[in-house]
Amino acid sequence: MTALVDGFGRIHTDLRISVTDRCNLRCTYCMPAEVVFMPREELLSFEEITRVAAVAAGEGIRTIRLTGGEPLLRRDLDGLVRMLVAVPGIEEVAATTNGLLLAEQAEALAAAGLGRLNVSLDAIREETFEKLARRRGLDRVLVGLAAARAAGFRSIRINAVSIRGLSEAEIVPLAGLCRREGRHLRFLEFMPLDAEGGWGAEQVLSGAAVRVILEREIGPLEPLESADPGQPAVDWRWADGGGLIGFIDPVTSPFCDRCDRLRLTADGQFRNCLFSTTEWDARAVLRGGGSDEELAALLRACVAAKRAAHGIGSPAFERPARAMYQIGG
């Protein structure tokens, strides 16, 4: 069986595909307040995305996650989901969304074959939500979550970015909501991928610090062994049976040694890491009459060049030129 193996023995089975850089929020950890988006003709078409997915599946990719920007802004996204779930070798198609458009689209996406959802929700108080997102919309996200549950997705996880000085007061209310509703909540450390370059290590609210607050205010947590060694989150469960809590700690506890994911940007660039400073131009191959073998060779070259770790906090660390919304979460 073909496998995408890098120079450190890591096997890559997951491809994150950004379908747009556009978003209906302006989250401070992801985007600038004012932004000029890519011209639509620079974005890959659904047919181009599906061709890349088919080539990647032939090389060993098994799962796809659709990202953005906000992927639900891409018109007829359910049509792309149908195309991707039909690709031989692809076992699951998932998506990450801010949830603002979920109420309108959840049923169609589930019917198309989308299996899992990650919904970004950093706060459940409107004041903090607006401070982080620079937009209103908390009520719409909560309605969208209810619609997603009704649509019957296999898994719905809540992702909350933690920023020191902003997020502390949201931790316990978020956990309480997820405990009441039986949702899997995951806290993510703030990474240096904000468009305005304001990230500083002092703003990182570590997963360990969040866990201290949760155990102090709610109750003890018990560590769980992961069934998926490639997943970025370390999961814990409430000792009282109140569900799961995950911690994604790329700054204080990097998981580069088990990373199994690659990325395709909305404008068709392969990336082997969120923090890569190099890209491999799949769009040029697609639109220049290149063959599937050329695409596969480009993907293999991308994997072969993957570094051992992103290096956040080291003297050699270099921020990528693109911000999170331009890469794909």
Helix count, per DSSP?
10
**The CATH H-level homologous superfamily:** Aldolase class I
CATH class value: Alpha Beta
Our Rg estimate from Cα atoms comes to: 19 Å
Give me the CATH architecture, please: Alpha-Beta Barrel
Q: Assign the CATH topology.
A: TIM Barrel
Number of domains: 1
Low-confidence stretches: none
The strand count comes to 14
Inertia-based shape? globular
Summarize the main sheet: 12 strands, mixed
Gap between N and C termini: 29 Å
Judged by helices, strands and strand pairing, the structural class is alpha/beta
The arrangement of helices and strands along the chain is: EEEHEHEHEHHEHEHEEEEEEHHH
β-sheet strand percentage: 15-25%
Structure summary:
With 329 residues, the protein is an alpha/beta fold. It is built from ten helices and 14 strands.
Question: What does this 3D model show about the protein?
Answer:
- The protein is α/β, with parallel strands linked by helices.
- It has a single domain, classed as TIM Barrel.
- The protein is built from 10 helices and 14 strands.
- It has a 12-stranded mixed β-sheet with strand order 9-10-11-8-7-6-5-4-3-12-13-14.
- Helix 2 packs parallel to helix 3, helix 3 packs parallel to helix 5 and helix 6 packs across helix 7.
- The radius of gyration is 19 Å and the shape is globular.
